[in-house]
Automatic annotation (TrEMBL), chains A, B:
Protein name (Swiss-Prot/TrEMBL): Phosphoserine aminotransferase
A single Gene Ontology CC term: cytoplasm
Family annotation (NCBIfam families): PRK05355.1, serC_1
Species in which this protein is naturally found: Aminipila terrae
GO BP terms: L-serine biosynthetic process
Domain annotation Aminotransferase class V: ranges: 8-352
GO molecular-function terms, A-Z: O-phospho-L-serine:2-oxoglutarate aminotransferase activity; pyridoxal phosphate binding
Length: 365, 365
C-alpha cells in the first residue's frame, strides 16, 4: 500500500492506473457535472454539455499530439480488436495488398485478421527469438503496390517498442499505438492511421482513438457493416450512434491533466527516467534478467524473469502482498511484466525496485 | 431543480437518468473499489475482482429476467447499431431470408442494414401513419423459410411499444429492446435473441446486452470480422478482448439495485403508474395530444404535441428553465417526448404534469 488513500501500485498491462487527481475530480462531479444537474453518465450525447466535452477532448488531443488539420480524430467502440478488422476493410482499396511487421501477439492477430480481407504479407517477424527485438526494415522490403504497411509500435506482451519509424515512401503507414500513445512525441504526418485503445494511457476501457488522414477515408466496400466504416464516424463527429460518453469524458479529463502539466515532453522525460531506473536495476542484478534487446525496449512494459518459473510465481505473490499488484507476465508467456504507463508515479517504480532488491537478497542462491 | 442535490429531472431518450443511489455508491468507491486499492476504471479485466463483477452482473441479470440456461448473455461494444449488422451476419444461416416489422426509425435502420447481408422482406410497416401504431402480425404473414424475424419492441422515437409478442412458430424471433429492457417481465423463451443498448434503463452508454439462444451461435461466415461473431464472445465470457469494464460494473450495480427493490414487478408497476398519469393528463387536456394509438403506447417514451411548432419550442425552453430537461422530440420529428425510464421517479412525472398544467393555463387560446 502507498500513501494515496490506501491505493496499491497497479502494474497491470491494461486497463491500468489513471491519474488520481483526475479520478478524484470525476468522483466529485459524478452525480452533478459542473452544476448542470446531471451526471455525464446520464447526459444526452446530443446535449450542449456533452458536445462541449467531446469537442474539447478532440481539441486537447490534437494539441497534445500536434495532429494536423488533414487528419480526423475518431472515438470508437470495439477496442484495438475491432481496428484489426476496420483497418483492412477500409484501407485495402486498390491492390488489396498490405504488408505487416510481426513483432508480437497483437501484431500477429492484426495480420491474421487482415488475411480475411486481402493479400497480406509478413515482411518481417521477430518470432524466431520470441519477439525479443524489433526488426530493422527498409523501404525496399515492402511491396511497392501495397495499400498500407502495418506495425505495432509498442508490444505490450513482449515489452518491445519501435525505436524508429519505418520509411514507407508513399505507402500509408498504420500503427497500433495502444500501449504507448502519449508517452512520447511522435510525428503524426509520418503515419496514415494511428489507433489506440484507451485503457493504458488514456481512460477506462471502452473507447479507441483513431487518427486517420482524410484521403484514406471513404473506401470501405458497400456491404461493410455501417459501424465499421470510418467515413460514417468521420462525417458524424464520432456521433453516428451513441458514443461511449462517460469514457470519452474521462479521456478528455486525462488530456486536460497532461496539458496542465506541460504536455507530452515532461511526461516522456519521467517515463524515460522510470523505465531507465528499472532496466538498469535489472541489468545489474544477478537474479533478474530482461530478455529484450537493448535498442528495442519499451518504456511502458518492462518484462523480466528470474529464469525459475517457481521463483517467478513466488515473486508475483509476495509483491502483491506488498501492494505491488499485477506483476505477472501475460498468461501466454509467464515471467514478470511491470507496466509503468504514464499514470504510474516514480514512487511506484522505486517501491518496485526496493521490493525486487529485498526479494533478491532473501532468495539468493 | 428538485431536492436531489440540485439535480434536474432529465427526460432524455438516452443516455438517461440512472438511480441516484447507485451513482452515489459508484462515486464513493471510485478511486478505491471495496478496499482493493484500485478503481474499477483501472482494474485488469483478468483480475479476480473484475471477474467477480462481470460474473455477478450476468448472474443478477439472469435472475431479474429469468433467462434460461440455454441462453448466453453477452456484454458487447458498438451499441444497438452494431447489432443491426451482427444479427443478420450471424443469423442468416440457411435461406438467407429474414422478415422485419418496421415500426420506427430504428427498425427501419435495422432492416436497411440487414439488406447488405441477405434477402430482407418488410412484412409489415406503420410508416403510412408516421409510425403511430404497432401492426398486428400473424404467423402466416412471415415467410416459412425465414432464418429469423426482427422486431423493435419499443420505438424510442415514436413512443410505441409491442403490446403482444408475434407468434413465429419455429422461426427465431429477434427483438431490439434497447428502450424497454427491464421495464416489464418478458418471457425470454419466446425470443431467439434480445439485444439492448444499456444507455436507457441500465448504465452509461458503451455496453450492449445480447441474450442469445445457444443453438443460434456459430453460423457467422468465415470472413466475418472477429468482433462481429457471437461465437467469439460466447466462448470467452465476453472477454475475448478488453470489455468496457467500468460500464459493465455500473450496469451490475443497477441490476443489484433493482433486485434489492424487489425485481422487475414493482418497477413495472411504477412505470405503468408513471406513464398512466402522464397519458391520462395528455388525453384530458385540450392543449396537448398524443399521436399514438392507445393500444400501442410506450411506457418509456411518451410523445406529445400541441399542434403548434412554435408553442412546442416555447414549452421545451420553459420546461428546461424549470429543471425539466430534454423534453424535445427526436430531431427527425420535433414535438415533445418525455422519456420516463426506470430511474425517473414519480416526482419527476408529477413535476412535469404540474408544469404542463401551468403552461396550458398561461397559453390558453
Ligand atoms: C498493442 C495492443 N493492441 C491491441 C490490443 C487489443 O485491444 P482490445 O482488448 O481493446 O481489443 C491490445 C490489448 O492489450 C494491445 O496491447
Ligand atoms: C430502439 C433503439 N435501437 C437502437 C438504437 C441505436 O443504439 P446506439 O446509438 O447505441 O447504436 C437506439 C438509440 O437510441 C434505440 O432507441
Ligand atoms: Mg505483444
Ligand atoms: Mg540481470
Ligand atoms: Mg423509433
Ligand atoms: Mg389531449
Amino acid at each position: 500500500m502507498n500513501k494515496n488513500n490506501g491505493r496499491v501500485y497497479n502494474f497491470s498491462a491494461g486497463p491500468s492506473m489513471l491519474p488520481l487527481e483526475v479520478m478524484e475530480n470525476v468522483a466529485e462531479q459524478l452525480t452533478n457535472y459542473m452544476g448542470c444537474g446531471q451526471s455525464v453518465m446520464e447526459m444526452s450525447h446530443r446535449s450542449k454539455e456533452f458536445e462541449a466535452i467531446i469537442e474539447d477532448a478532440e481539441k486537447n488531443l490534437r494539441n497534445l499530439m500536434d495532429i494536423p488539420e488533414n487528419y480526423k480524430v475518431l472515438f470508437l467502440q470495439g477496442g484495438g480488436t475491432l481496428q484489426f478488422s476496420m483497418v483492412p476493410i477500409n484501407l485495402l482499396k486498390k491492390s488489396k495488398k498490405a504488408d505487416y511487421i510481426v513483432t508480437g501477439t497483437w501484431a500477429k492477430k492484426a495480420a491474421a485478421e487482415a488475411k480475411k480481407f486481402g493479400d497480406i504479407k509478413i515482411v518481417a517477424s521477430s518470432e524466431d527469438t520470441t519477439f525479443s527485438y524489433i526488426p530493422k526494415v527498409k523501404k525496399e522490403d515492402f511491396r511497392a503496390d501495397a495499400d498500407y504497411i502495418h506495425i505495432t509500435f509498442n508490444n505490450t506482451i513482449y515489452g518491445t517498442h519501435f525505436g524508429y519509424i519505418p520509411e514507407t515512401g508513399d505507402i500509408p503507414l498504420v500503427a497500433d499505438m495502444s500501449s504507448c500513445i502519449l508517452s512520447e512525441k511522435i510525428d503524426v504526418t509520418k503515419f496514415g492511421l494511428i489507433y489506440a485503445g484507451a485503457q493504458k494511457n488514456i481512460a477506462p476501457a471502452g473507447v479507441t482513438i483513431v487518427i486517420i488522414r482524410e484521403d484514406l477515408i471513404g473506401f470501405a466496400p458497400a456491404e461493410t457493416p455501417t459501424y465499421l466504416d470510418y467515413k460514417v464516424h468521420a462525417e458524424n463527429g464520432s456521433m453516428y450512434n451513441t458514443p461511449p460518453c462517460f469514457t470519452i469524458y474521462v479521456a478528455g479529463e486525462v488530456f486536460k491533466h497532461i496539458l496542465k502539466n506541460g504536455g507530452i515532453d515532461p511526461l516522456n522525460k519521467l517515463d524515460v527516467e522510470k523505465a531507465g531506473r528499472l532496466y538498469k536495476f535489472i541489468d545489474e542484478s544477478k537474479l533478474y534478467n530482461c530478455p529484450v534487446q537493448e535498442d528495442s525496449r519499451s518504456l511502458m512494459n518492462v518484462v523480466f524473469i528470474t529464469g525459475d518459473a517457481d521463483l517467478d510465481k513466488k515473486f508475483i505473490a509476495e509483491a502483491k502482498a506488498a501492494g505491488l499488484v499485477n506483476l505477472g507476465g501475460h498468461r501466454s508467456i509467464g515471467g514478470m511484466r511491470a507496466s509503468i504507463y504514464n499514470a504510474m508515479p516514480m514512487e511506484g517504480v522505486d517501491a518496485l525496485i526496493a521490493f525486487m532488491k529485498k526479494f533478491e537478497e532473501e532468495n539468493a542462491k
